[in-house]
Amino acid sequence: MPYELALAALSDPTRRLVFERILAAPRPVAAIAKGLPVSRPAVSQHLKVLKDAGLITERRQGTRRLYAANPQALGELREAIEAMWQEALGGVAAAFDAEGEQ
Amino acid sequence: MPYELALAALSDPTRRLVFERILAAPRPVAAIAKGLPVSRPAVSQHLKVLKDAGLITERRQGTRRLYAANPQALGELREAIEAMWQEALGGVAAAFDAEGEQ
DNA sequence: AGATCGCGTAAGTCTACGCTAACGTAAGCG
DNA sequence: CGCTTACGTTAGCGTAGACTTACGCGATCT
């Protein structure tokens, strides 16, 4: 699962709220939607995007579905960001060296 | 600078291309736009968004402007993602425990 | 079997935003 | 001074996507 999908999925504020609500523990849809400023179908749509991005997993339990965060996708995103961070650190050092030479 | 802005800024594919082009070393706008599938003004607009998100810094040098990545904002984003990752790991462990008890 | 719960999906609307084309501007050069 | 370079900015357009309303469907209860 490419990290780009996770990045795009987490860029929406409402979707981040949805995701953060199932970070600590799995929850059914109605419990996620409760207290959010959008309707339950909207939450369902956000869950689909998060699932397609690999950020969450779905488990059916009777008539309801439990959604849980998937740490692996989050780990991949973390590593991608960290790689960019490292490269940026190196870039600053290189620019500083070039500055000193002129 | 809140990490939400950085997240939203990096969610666009073209803007990511722009950002990655100045990760290793600072560049003027024309150099960034060269080879990209969009016009130079579009690159300028992306640079503005990245700057507003704190991800890059601008330094004027005569008639041109050098854009460089800002590792600090990237570091903050990295830490925010890492915190969510840790929480997700804890959530999975908690769900597993609950599974064993029933 | 009928009723209800818990949820996904489809259709339609409206806003955000990425893009181009055109223009404006400050710095260097002859 | 013009002229060119290297940009930023604006106006306008087109589309992706976030949202609601309405509907459909399987599981559970009585």
Strands, helices and their partners?
The structure is a homodimer of 102-residue chains.
Chain A lengths: L2 H8 L2 H9 L5 E2 H5 L6 H13 L3 E6 L2 E6 L1 H31 L1
Antiparallel strand pairs in A: 1-3, 2-3
The structure holds a DNA duplex (30 and 30 nucleotides).
Describe the overall structure:
- The structure is a homodimer of 102-residue chains.
- Chain A has five helices and three strands; from the N terminus they run ααβααββα.
- With 102 residues, the first copy, chain A, is α+β, with helices and mostly antiparallel strands.
- In chain A, strand 2 (56-61) and strand 3 (64-69) form a beta hairpin.
- The first copy, chain A, has a three-stranded antiparallel beta sheet.
- At the A-B interface, helix 1, helix 2 and helix 5 of A face helix 1, helix 2 and helix 5 of B.
- Chain A binds a DNA duplex (30 and 30 nucleotides) through residues 12, 14-15, 28-30, 38-42, 44-48, 62-65.
* Main beta-sheet annotation of chain A: 3 strands, antiparallel
Number of helices of chain A: 5
Order of helices and strands of chain A: HHEHHEEH
Which value, in Å, is the CA radius of gyration of chain A?
Answer: 19 Å
Greatest interface and its participating residue counts: A-B, 34 and 34 residues
Percentage of residues in DSSP E strands of chain A: 5-15%
Backbone shape of chain A? elongated
Strand order of the largest sheet of chain A: 1-3-2
CA(first)-CA(last) distance of chain A: 45 Å
**Amount of helix of chain A:** 55-70%
Number of E-state strands of chain A: 3
Mean pLDDT of chain A: 93
Structural class of chain A: alpha+beta
Query: Oligomer, anyone?
Result: homodimer
Name the poorly predicted regions of chain A.
Answer: none
